[in-house]
Design brief:
heterotrimer; A alpha/beta (421); B alpha/beta (341); C alpha/beta (195); A: 421 residues; Rossmann fold; six-stranded mixed beta sheet; 18% strand; B: 341 residues; alpha/beta; 13 helices; 8 strands; 13% strand
């Protein structure tokens, strides 16, 4: 049923339809509305049987999920940003143990400086942990991906993280076609664990593994992620058959057929990019969009197939590896190796900075002229950065940079001092 | 003719003790049908107190639960020596996740059993003192506070033995570890530090808190059995001497554990809902020197010039415990001797 | 696409207002998107929320930069926040006040806009009267329906009752209905003055 609903609410209700048996929660903005809503459903008895556990930290949240999943229960949790980093050790552990936990990641920047707004630094920080990472473009997709995530996770015994942009999606109220219980039940069979803590058939889970076998265990995990590359489209197709709706898959394309320039991005910014692309199309530019839904496993072949015809690929991402550059761009450059395609990396929207259609139009126009640099920081205020560097040069005890920059921004603007790139 | 009742401590070994008992009163360990939760062949050192403690405790828990039990293990010696891939010493359902999260993982297992309609399956979580008082304390306190149905057992060997004998918040004053070396003007671990976990556990008002040592098997097993009679969070703190870390003879493990209790340095008691309900009294008043002098971690106190003032401070700790828990009764041999403070 | 920006203070139901507006538009079969300004603002701090209404799927995720209508829930923000940023000359403004624009000191601004696009609504008074609490958001949505005709008062009524159940919903809906009447009347007066 189509409903006008907050993204978090849509995800919470959809997760409930997946009949999770143990949900553990530690609050962190902007994930809170999701776990609050699930908590209410458990407390009221609407979601039963289910154990909702208010834990004392994210580290405990993932740890409870590990215990529950190993004991054969379908386990779910949600987090963001610092919370994900606080549970990092358990995030790796869940994947290493092959436990099919599903977690919503309401994407948010990582401090310091502390920042509650959206970017993808958190998801990127755990890209090597062994979790499948799926990115939602809309709240519709965020909700749908959770149903697919449970099935994918349990089929492969691999944990799945559904990434949705914090605030931008979690707090947005928009139309979402909500699934019903019978559809989800038909799509998602009960959880049959590969390994389970059963006193009547005892096994040891989590043994120490030395050099003689560690590489093989790791490689097996890699193979299961590669299996996911096959399973993700199959599950998306099954989902479409069950619901009549296309959601998920490895990637999505928009006006790419004859595109000379293809813009690649993750998550909700794809919507704004599509609006900007339509306008550039009207101006006669052959430009299209590819949204990466499955970031881990990374669909190298599918990406290469869809991008190889383009002359130029512009990657817009809300995260970067400091001292290096774009993260998604790095993956894409490998995917494009050996083609004639030029790759341009754009870092944008860090810490919640708005990515506007106008800024994107300018960016695409620059790209069309072949003038986009290899690495660009969208809407970066170079002036303010330079002034802080000057202060740092001028005196050893220049103080905390973040605070200096804020003070600088509040100061009366000197004429000609602010130069935007 | 006058008769004197025979006391087990007078006849020595457990085997003798068991022989003199009715079948029903004999220890779980003396039962041929015991679970052997942790089986032989593991890689623990000779005289390992932790292996012994785990064996006693888990077999007792298995009997108390009719075998319907899952164990969660923190990273540490016990985990490492019991599961050298691809072998395992565990004959029970066993899960190891991380160093600091055993209480939370146990919470998850317990919740799963409830939701799966198998509330008869009980959960025991176990860790060394590092995984309990230090890195695992946040999760442990959370598990206590929520009153999750988990028995948490701490095998306390007073340091990070798995990583090579470093100081933990359970390392006693003056003890030499690799990070509190016996050098400088105040050798060994500092005074005035450390966490008293049993009392912290009691402060959570959980159903059952008890301490035990590997020296008194009947007592330890009885406490496990008692613990399994409650639902909710429970805590058992077992002193397990470590020959490697303590620098003691491997055949002295039980002797040292007994001395820890007899000196008052390790008070053995039970508490329910935050109140002490029973204590194991000191049988023969023993000065701390007897306990300290047979452990190389305290060797710096017994050099050419004994550090009597440091020994006196340790004796004061024992005396404070004796007073706090009422460890001395009229039956205590040497009870009337002046307490040296 | 019709874009609305709502200014108010934390605790005044600014975010709820945008959400209810989106529900009202949705109830009439339109696409709508409501979202807050994503702050960690506490009670009393300036807060902004947004609502977009369109006949086709709304894809953009940028904040509303060029609003077609600005709703001001709290007039004390006038000298603190750039309330009219990006507003087109024919844009709509609805201000929660029982005073005139001259009294508020924004008479000059009044002259820059279509007079029948810049109206006031005593929403706090209406809320106190009907709901008993100074929460002007529901009443202002009634005023919004009258001012912009983007949604019907019936849809606003539905959205309010969906959000606030029972007697609270009824009372808020009554406040909105009265605000609707007041603003309709103001509009007629303004039209008459213009003609």
């Amino acid at each position: 049923m189509l409903r006008q609903i907050e993204g978090s609410r849509a995800v919470a209700e959809t997760v409930a339809l997946c009949r999770p048996e143990v949900v553990c929660a530690y609050p962190i903005s902007p994930q809170t509305h999701i776990i609050e809503a699930v908590g209410v459903m458990v407390k009221s008895g609407e979601l039963a049987p289910c154990e909702f556990i208010n834990v004392e930290s994210e580290f405990a949240a993932m740890s409870v999920a590990i215990g529950a999943s190993a004991a054969g229960a379908r386990a779910y949790t949600a987090t963001s940003s610092q919370g994900l980093l606080f549970m990092m050790e358990a995030v790796y552990n869940a994947a290493g143990l092959g436990l099919p936990i599903v977690m919503t990641l309401a994407n948010r920047a990582i401090g310091a400086p502390i920042n509650i707004w959206n970017d993808h630094s958190d998801a990127m920080a755990v890209r090597d942990a062994g979790w499948i990472q799926l990115f939602a473009e809309t709240n519709q997709e965020a909700a749908d991906l959770h149903v697919q995530a449970f099935r994918l996770a349990e089929e492969l015994s691999v944990p799945v993280m559904v990434c949705m942009d914090g605030f931008i999606l979690t707090h947005a109220v928009e139309g979402v076609d909500m699934l019903d219980q019978s559809t989800v039940d038909a799509f998602l069979p009960p959880y049959e664990p590969r390994q389970v803590l059963d006193p009547d058939s005892p096994v040891s889970i989590g043994a120490m593994v030395g050099p003689e076998a560690f590489e093989e265990v790791r490689y097996l995990a890699h193979l299961r992620q590669l299996d996911a590359l096959d399973r993700i489209p199959v599950i998306a197709a099954a989902f479409e058959e069950a619901t009549g709706r296309r959601s998920g898959g490895l990637l999505s394309t928009y006006r790419t057929d004859d595109a000379e320039t293809i813009v690649v991005a993750l998550g909700s910014v794809l919507g704004t990019i599509k609006d900007a692309v339509d306008i550039r199309r009207e101006a006669g530019e052959r430009i299209g969009v590819v949204g990466i839904t499955s970031f881990r496993p990374f669909p190298f072949q599918a990406v290469r197939d869809v991008l190889c015809g383009a002359r130029q690929v512009v990657v817009i991402e809300k995260a970067f590896s400091i001292g290096f550059g774009g993260v998604l761009a790095t993956d894409l450059s490998l995917a494009l190796h050996g083609t004639d395609c030029t790759l341009r990396s754009v870092v944008a929207g860090l810490g919640g900075r708005s990515i506007t259609r106008l800024a994107l139009e300018d960016l695409f126009a620059t790209a069309a002229r072949g003038q986009l640099e290899a690495l660009t920081f969208l809407d970066l205020d170079h002036g303010v950065v330079e002034r802080e560097r000057e202060r740092m040069m001028a005196t050893r005890r220049s103080g905390p940079s973040a605070e200096n920059i804020l003070r600088d921004l509040k100061a009366p603007r000197r004429v000609g001092a602010k130069e935007k790139s | 003719m006058t008769t004197r009742p025979v006391r087990f401590y007078q006849v020595g070994s457990f085997a003798v003790g068991n022989r003199l008992l009715e079948d029903g009163d004999r220890t779980v360990q003396s039962d041929l049908n015991r679970a052997n939760s942790i089986d032989s062949g593991h890689r623990a050192c000779q005289g390992c107190g932790e292996a012994l403690g785990a064996r006693y405790a888990l077999d007792a828990a298995m009997r108390a639960t009719n075998g319907q039990m899952v164990a969660v293990n923190a990273t540490g010696c016990l985990e490492v020596f019991s599961t050298p891939y691809p072998e395992t010493s565990w004959r029970i359902a066993w899960l190891h996740s991380l160093f600091g999260n055993a209480p939370a993982v146990a919470t998850g297992v317990s919740a799963a059993m409830r939701v799966k309609g198998k509330p008869e399956v009980r959960v025991v979580a176990q860790a060394g003192d590092g995984g309990t008082v230090d890195i695992g304390f946040g999760c442990l306190s959370g598990m206590f506070e929520r009153n999750d149905d988990v028995l948490f057992i701490c095998y306390d060997n007073e340091g990070y033995m798995n990583t090579g004998v470093q100081r933990s918040a359970a390392t006693p004053p003056a003890a030499r570890t690799a990070t509190t070396d016996a050098v400088g003007p105040e050798p060994g671990n500092a005074f005035g530090q450390g966490k008293d976990l049993p009392r912290l556990a009691m402060a959570h008002d959980i159903a059952y808190v008890a301490t035990a040592t590997v020296a008194d098997l009947h007592d330890l097993e009885a406490k496990v059995e008692r613990a399994m009679q409650f639902r909710g969070a429970r805590y058992l703190h077992i002193l397990v001497p470590c020959p490697l870390g303590w620098g003691s003879a491997s055949d002295d493990t039980i002797h040292i554990a007994r001395l820890a209790k007899e000196t008052g340095l390790f008070p053995v008691f039970e508490a329910e809902y935050g109140k002490v309900t029973s204590v194991s009294h000191i049988r023969r008043r023993t000065p701390v020197e007897e306990y300290l002098s047979i452990q190389r971690r305290y060797a710096h106190l017994f050099g050419k010039k004994p550090r009597t003032e440091v020994i006196a401070r340790i004796q004061a700790i024992a005396d404070r415990n004796i007073e706090r828990y009422g460890l001395i009764t009229d039956e205590t041999v040497g009870a009337t001797r002046e307490v040296t403070a | 696409m019709f874009q609305v920006r709502i200014h108010g203070r934390g605790g005044q139901g600014v975010v709820t207002a945008a959400e209810m507006l989106s529900v009202a538009a949705f109830a009439e079969g339109r696409h709508a998107q409501a979202f807050p300004s994503f702050g960690s603002e506490r009670t009393g701090a300036p807060v902004v929320s947004y609502c977009r209404i369109d006949d086709r799927e709304i894809r953009t995720r940028e904040p509303v930069m060029v609003p077609d209508c600005v709703i001001i829930q709290d007039v004390t923000l006038i000298n603190q926040v750039d309330l009219f940023s990006g507003l087109a000359p024919d844009g709509y403004v609805l201000v929660n006040t029982s005073r005139s624009f001259d009294e508020l000191g924004i008479g000059d601004l009044f002259n820059q806009f279509h007079h029948d696009h810049l109206l006031t609504c005593p929403a706090t008074e209406l809320a106190l009267e009907h709901v008993g609490r100074p929460l002007p958001n529901a009443a202002l949505l009634g005023g919004f329906a009258a001012l912009t005709h983007q949604v019907t008062i019936g849809a606003i009524d539905t959205a309010i009752r969906e959000r606030f159940l029972g007697v609270v919903g009824e009372r808020n809906a009554a406040a909105a209905a009265e605000a609707y009447k007041i603003v309709m009347q103001e509009e007629e007066t303004a039209d008459a003055a213009t003609n």
